[in-house]
Amino acid sequence: MKHPLAILLVALAGAPATASADRHVTECDVLAALPIDPNRPDGISGASLDKLDATLAIPACEQALRQKPNHPRYQFQYGRSLLKATRYPEALKFFGLAAEQGYVTAKAALGYMHDNGFGVPQDHGEAARLYREAAEQGDALGQYNLGSSYSSGEGVPRSDAEALNWFRKAAEQGAAFAQISIGLRYFIGSGVPRDDAEAVKWYRKAAEQGYASGQTWLGSMYKEGFGVPQDDAEAVKWYRKAAEQGDAPGQIDLGFMYKKGRGVPQDDAEAARWYRKAAEQGLANAQCNLGLMYKEGRGVPQDDAQSVYWFGKAAAQGYRLGQTTRGIKYEKSLGLTRNTIGLKPDEIRDGIFTIEWVDCDDVEFHRGPIDCAATPCLFDWSNPRLRG
Predict the structure, then answer these.
(1) Is 280 helix (H, G, I), strand (E, B) or coil?
(2) 20 falls within a domain
(3) How many domains would you assign to the chain?
(4) Cα(381)–Cα(379) distance, rounded to whole angstroms?
């Protein structure tokens, strides 16, 4: 499938010469528009910040601003591009210019800068004030981030009811990340009675928009039979959609299904392939599982050095590699006292290590309060503030 920008440029190639200035403006929209910005042009899906390519978006938006220097949408989108490039003082400036012209979403982006101390002293109270200004004018980003402030109690008194109220307002505008937050609260029972069917409803809304995290969560509900009839094939369908978008939790879940032969024919090579994709993105339990595949020679050639390498990467993130009560000896079996963390497999081969026993968690469901400092979390629902 062609990238939307490629399709756009093909269309513009046959346009009259007078349209050449608009080409760069449109590139700025394609590359840097916020997907939930109500002011983005029709037909432009935009890019979430994690997918925004600043190396392309910055020159495109600079060209757009040369054509229309005071256009608030291009100021905002340029600010997003600068934020992605961690050019915080400049991003702050352009968010401010857009906000001064009444561009509401830019106020929410300014709030995020204050919340995190990017280009300005950190001030949660000022962040919450800016979020509220945007939220009360109907801006979904402002609503979601204000809800996150109430969830964490930063800048406002902590209130699950207020958090849910503002998440719901954003979700009802189609903000997929807010839909995920509501689903998580119903799944965990945070501020609302636990209700798996209601969680599934909100996960599905996000998943059907193509939001990868929603697809992974929906797949997991089918895998476990929470709120829907248990269905491994349906779980695999949603995991694959997320995994193919590069969602690391979706990738490890899909790998698990191949490893166990659930919803797909059992295939260790496919399991290892998906574990690797998630491991290379830094997901600790995927790194542990990939290490285990190398230890056992499942789907990959047996290789103790590769095994220790991936176990070491997981351990470096504080990942618990097993229960000591079941016999694992971290220092001996993983060689961690020999400074293996950060070494390459070829360097590990120079040492003498034995791997006695390791257990890796697959993706777990966590019910009730979550302490993300103690338990590896795939999604920190208590403070999921978005950058805009």
Answers:
(1) helix
(2) yes
(3) 1
(4) 6
